[in-house]
Specification:
The chain has helices at about 1-20, 25, 30-45, 60-75, 85-90, 95-115, 120-130, 130-135. The protein is an all-alpha fold. The chain starts with a helix and ends with a helix. It binds protoporphyrin IX containing FE.
Amino acid sequence: MHNLLASLLGFVLAAGMAHADDSLYARLGGEAGVAQITSEYIDAVASDPAVNQSFEKVNLKRVKKMLVELTCALTGGGCVYSGDDMKIVHKNLKITEREFNALVEALRISLDRHGIAQRDKNALLAILAPMKRDIVEK
Ligand code: HEM
């Protein structure tokens, strides 16, 4: 009986782990992968004089930390996002569509550099793209 319980428990645990490994978060490289990718594309945007106006005087460390958390929460990594609402955060920054597209492009480049599969890349972009209406000022 104990053996049966033990193997049942083992099965449940294995199923749970398989499920965790199935997440987009895991395919992005988990905590380390998402942190690296995020750091890379934020650095790219924040150091590009064509699109970095809004990043002056910004605490990049916090932005990265919050973005990693948000990405984790939205890709099945199990995090709880503790930052502010996208609309409130980006209010008054006067972010243009061109700046938004530059960030998406920087993200795409970073995902490529990390060898993320096309469909996973598209899945992440599809999650972030609809946020445009809360971020870009019309
Ligand atoms: C889908 C795209 C984007 C996402 C998911 C996103 C997400 C975030 C997050 C999570 C934060 C931190 C929130 C907090 O501190 O509580 C943040 C802050 C910020 N974001 Fe974005 N962002 C996006 C696009 C952009 C773009 C295109 C720009 C400008 C080119 C931008 C500029 C900023 C700036 C300047 C801050 C810091 C604001 C401050 O601390 O006062 N973001 N963003």
